[in-house]
Design brief:
The complex is a heterotrimer of chains A (258), B (322) and C (312).
Chain A (H helix, E strand, L loop, with lengths): L1 H18 L2 H23 L4 H25 L2 H7 L2 H6 L5 H33 L6 H25 L4 H25 L5 H13 L9 H6 L5 H27 L5
Helix pairs in contact in A: 1-6, 2-3, 2-6, 3-6, 3-7, 6-7, 6-11, 7-8, 7-11, 8-9
Chain B lengths: L11 E12 L8 E12 L3 E5 L6 H8 L7 E6 L2 E2 L9 E4 L11 H11 L4 H14 L15 H13 L5 E5 L7 H16 L3 E6 L2 H7 L2 E6 L2 E7 L10 E7 L3 H11 L3 E4 L2 E6 L4 H10 L3 E8 L1 H18 L1
Parallel strand pairs in B: 3-8, 3-9, 6-7, 7-8
Antiparallel strand pairs in B: 1-2, 1-4, 4-5, 9-10, 11-13, 11-14, 12-13
Helix pairs in contact in B: 2-3
Chain C lengths: L1 H28 L17 H7 L4 H18 L7 H14 L5 H9 L4 H17 L4 H14 L3 H11 L8 H14 L1 H14 L3 H34 L29 E4 L4 E4 L12 H21 L1
Antiparallel strand pairs in C: 1-2
Classes of the chains: A mainly alpha (258), B alpha/beta (322), C mainly alpha (312).
Bound molecules: adenosine-5'-triphosphate (ATP) and magnesium ion.
């Protein structure tokens, strides 16, 4: 119970920190402007304008969400250590795992808050353009939020032992490869070398399969999205993010703050 | 050393035994022994001074005690608990050196945050925070962001933070560094007040006058080794100790009369006279000087003894360096 | 002195700002903006590579290439000249996002400069059918391409037949299939197909149209019989008939008697080409082209021949 209160307190403080940071509003405004760019871009096409509008909207949300997730995530632990604000926090009856969890949950709450704002903008623009909106869109946004939360966890992991610079680099790398692993596995399956096939399979297993969180095409085209296409990625995302966080905690617990 | 082994948690608040810490200054560089088998203990209710020159290892020791870094070997306990545990920190306060806090918070939010982390009940929280704001004199600035605080204000809110959960023992790393004389005095008064409340204070410092004025006991550390541990009075040899008083505008005959009485302990330099008297006689002397129409320009406790120990450790360090 | 210097600096700043603003605005308005791709400077990635490289933003990248294709067609005098480019772009678009609709039909409209282009359009249309099996239009475009450009009536009939029952498919599609079948497999197949349609349809109006089509087939059967007689005449006398009567006239006619025109009308030789038709219908039973379409096809064939000639 006490631990929950402490984690909640830290998360709340992290949320407050982000909310009081001006850079974030700039990013958010930029994202909303980009979502609105869909109106202009769709006008360039004489057909299927609603589709392009929503492609651009969902794409912007996912792109910006990910950028914000990485941007915030890589600083999450490092900033506290670098500015030595962690000294007084850890001198209170709070364990390092509680600290990491609190910071992570606070950031994730921020990410979902932003997603909510961007989604509202998306819904508004879709509504104004008479583009259809349905559960498919909700599923797509939900899953992209999950992908972002997973990226925050990955960024937290790197933030636990390296500089923000390197951490952003690594996290972005994981994000890119995470979107490729399925194709990689597919392509390698035609290879004659069994080691190559095996390697591709293991890369797919070990790195996050981020394509599983991508149903935006189905959403925009109103194609059916099965329940398992939503529930299983949610379970996978939560499981994977938790594992990454545990690893981050283990690494963080071994650190000397000197 | 062996007496320290039998620790009863009731009296020994801090116990450090054979604590060693090796640090690697940078990647691939040689290991450096920052703390070399240091041992000391802090008794309940005392103000303990941890004294040493820059780079001696004071902050490193404190970080080990706060669980921020891990000792290479040796033992460190607070209130009978290994420092790697967390729950006992409910009774421990900490103010790091040159503190930097979440500057997006207001003073009040800042204290509330730490109060919640320390597990303070909601019902006590508000009252406690108000009391602390009064204690450190920051009531006016309580709703300003820490970003706008001066260094002295930060130091004071930091001290309030270390006290927010009413701990039994407080660890302060150079609490008076960078403060103006008034600020130093305020912090000093606060520390003394903590002692009257029965709290134990562990304080890092290299400012000897503060230590001499405040501490019941000290440990002197240099080059990562404990050079001395004991009472402050114990190493102030009698006769040598006293207070230096400087005065001007003394009539020549009055000066002569004083000189007769004090002899060597008075030096005359033109208009200026320098006098050294035992602490107890300071009041008397000052009254006398004022009665003679003199102007007192300075009253300073004489601390040649602590300085001499300090200097001798520095000289030892130089010897090692060769 | 210091005051004056400050004012001077401000003037310098203002003048500098204005001149650079002028430079920027003027040069911007004159920036060359050729149609991308016209000079071969539009890089079209391999569709699979584009899909993998788009990192989950397939829809967005597809839209980008789609807009490129639209720009090319919108900016070009003769868009068919850019058919290979358009084909490449639409291939990328539909590989990245096969659920798009219009781009497939866009490709079908513009990829008509050569049989290769038409075949590529057909491949794209097959992808369209795979992802939109309920949309009759893609079958229609595919069948049209088969029949009109590639002149493969059998394939055309096969494709169109799959579309006739789909929602929104126009009625004439069924009759078109019947005509194509007549061309491809002979009259009996066409007639069978129509009889099947008549048996299954509920709409009286539709049934009337099918019955008329069946009647046309009967007329066509007789016309073909007459064509054959005309051919025999040409072989025996080395010249064409003057009138239909020539077929039964003379000491040694090619036929004993002529089949009557089913409606009691008569057989005539129509137009400069003197095609044998029934005066009731005025045309033969075969896929009908609108005049402009016929022109287009002629033009297309001429260009094709020329290209194949120069290729050799
Ligand atoms: N991160 C670090 N890596 C390597 N060596 C370090 C590190 N931090 C401190 N040291 C070394 O450890 C020794 C002790 O440092 P420490 O900060 O404990 O000294 P201190 O007594 O607190 O000094 P000061 O009075 O200046 O605060 C110094 O020699 C310092 O060079
Ligand atoms: Mg220090």
């Amino acid at each position: 119970m006490g631990a929950l209160i402490r984690i909640y307190t830290l998360a709340g403080n992290t949320l407050r920190e982000v909310i009081r940071n001006r850079i974030l509003y700039v990013l958010l405004c930029f994202a909303i402007v980009l979502i609105a760019t869909g109106v202009v871009l769709s006008a360039l096409s004489y057909v299927e304008q609603e589709r392009i509008l929503q492609d651009v909207g969902l794409g912007s949300i996912r792109l910006f969400g990910t950028v914000i997730a990485i941007f915030l995530g890589v600083g999450v632990l490092h900033k506290e250590v670098d500015r030595r604000t962690i000294y007084t926090i850890l001198s209170k009856p709070i364990s390092r795992s509680e600290f990491v969890l609190g910071k992570y949950l606070g950031l994730t709450a921020t990410i979902w808050l932003q997603l909510l704002i961007m989604s509202a903008a998306f819904a508004l623009i879709s509504w104004l353009a008479h583009a259809p909106l349905g559960t498919g869109h909700a599923a797509a946004l939900l899953l992209s939020g999950l992908e972002m939360s997973l990226m925050v966890a990955v960024a937290t992991l790197f933030s636990a032992f390296t500089t923000p610079m390197l951490a952003s680099f690594f996290t972005a790398g994981i994000w890119v490869v995470g979107h490729l692993t399925r194709d990689l596995r597919q392509l390698a399956s035609h290879s004659d070398v069994s080691a190559v096939r095996e390697l591709a399979v293991w890369i797919h297993r070990l790195l996050p399969d981020l394509e599983s969180f991508n149903v935006s095409i189905q959403a925009v085209h109103g194609l059916p999205i099965e329940g398992s296409e939503v529930t299983l990625p949610i379970a996978y995302g939560i499981g994977y993010a938790s594992l990454v966080l545990i690893l981050a905690i283990v690494l963080f617990e071994r650190r000397d703050f000197r | 050393m062996s007496e320290r082994a039998d620790t009863s948690p009731v009296t020994k608040i801090v116990v450090v035994e054979d604590l060693t810490k090796d640090l690697r200054p940078g990647f691939g560089l040689r290991r450096k022994r920052v703390l070399d088998r240091i041992s000391f203990s802090v008794e309940r209710g005392e103000i303990f001074g941890f004294v040493g020159p820059n780079g001696a290892g004071k902050t490193t020791t404190l970080k080990v005690l706060m669980g921020l870094i891990r000792a290479t070997s040796g033992r460190a306990q607070i209130l009978g608990h290994d420092v790697r545990e967390t729950a006992y920190r409910r009774h421990v306060g900490f103010l790091p050196e040159n503190p930097y806090f979440h500057d997006f918070l207001t003073g009040r939010e800042f204290l509330a945050f730490y109060a919640k982390l320390s597990g303070l009940r909601r019902s006590n929280r508000a009252a406690r925070i108000e009391a602390l704001l009064d204690l450190v004199g920051l009531r006016e600035a309580a709703d300003a962001r820490l970003r706008t605080y001066s260094k002295g204000m930060l130091q004071r809110i930091g001290l309030a933070q270390s006290l927010v959960h009413d701990p039994e023992v407080v660890f302060l790393d150079e609490p008076m560094s960078g403060l103006d004389p008034l600020g130093r005095k305020e912090i000093r008064d606060l520390i003394l007040r903590l002692r009257t409340e029965g709290k134990t204070v562990f304080m890092n410092s290299h400012i000897l006058s503060d230590v001499e004025m405040l501490c019941d006991r000290v440990a002197i550390i240099a080059e990562g080794r404990i050079r001395y541990e004991g009472g402050v009075d114990a190493f102030l040899p009698h006769g040598e100790s006293g207070t230096d008083v400087v005065a001007t505008g003394l009539a020549p005959e009055a000066a002569a009369k004083l000189h007769d009485r004090l002899g060597e302990r008075m030096r005359v330099q033109g208009e200026r006279v320098e006098l050294r008297v035992p602490h107890k006689q300071v009041g008397e002397l000052l009254a006398e000087l004022l009665a003679m129409g003199a102007e007192v320009t300075s009253v300073m406790p004489h601390r040649a003894s602590l300085e001499s120990i300090f200097l001798s450790t520095v000289q030892e360090r130089r010897r090692w360096a060769r | 002195m210091g005051e004056q210097a400050a004012v001077g600096t401000r003037w310098v700043q203002l003048v500098a700002a204005l001149s650079f603003a002028a430079l920027t605005v003027v040069s911007f308005s004159k920036l060359p903006m050729p149609i991308r791709g016209a000079r071969g400077d539009l890089f079209i990635p391999r569709p699979e590579v584009a899909r993998i490289a788009s990192l989950g933003f397939e829809a967005l990248v597809a839209d980008y290439y789609w807009l490129q294709a639209v720009q090319i067609v919108g900016g070009a005098q003769n868009p068919t000249r850019y058919a290979p480019l358009i084909g490449g772009l639409i291939d990328v678009v539909t590989t990245l996002n096969p659920w798009v609709g219009h781009p497939y039909r866009f490709a079908a409209v513009w990829l008509i400069d050569s049989p290769e282009s038409v075949r590529q359009a057909n491949r794209l249309l097959e992808r369209a059918i795979e992802h939109h099996p309920e949309d009759w239009r893609h079958y229609f475009y595919l069948g049209f391409n088969q029949f009109f450009y590639l002149e493969d009536n059998e394939a055309a009939a096969a494709v169109l037949e799959r579309a006739i029952e789909l929602r929104g498919a126009p009625l004439y599609l069924k009759r078109l299939v019947a005509r194509l079948k007549v061309q491809a497999d002979g009259l009996e197949t066409g007639a069978t197909f129509l009889r099947e349609l008549i048996a299954t349809t509920r709409s009286r109006k539709a049934r009337a149209k099918y019955e008329r089509a069946l009647d046309e087939i009967e007329t066509e059967r007789r016309a073909r019989w007459l064509d054959q007689a005309r051919e025999d005449y040409r072989e025996r006398f080395g010249r064409d008939i003057e009138t239909i009567g020539d077929l039964v006239r003379g000491p040694d006619p090619v036929r004993e008697a002529l089949p009557p025109e089913p409606h009691g009308w008569e057989w005539i030789l129509k137009g400069k080409k003197r095609r044998l038709v029934s005066s009731y219908y005025g045309h033969r039973y075969e896929p009908q082209f609108h005049r402009t379409e016929r022109k287009r096809r002629k033009h297309w064939r001429a260009e094709l021949l020329e290209r194949e000639g120069s290729g050799r």
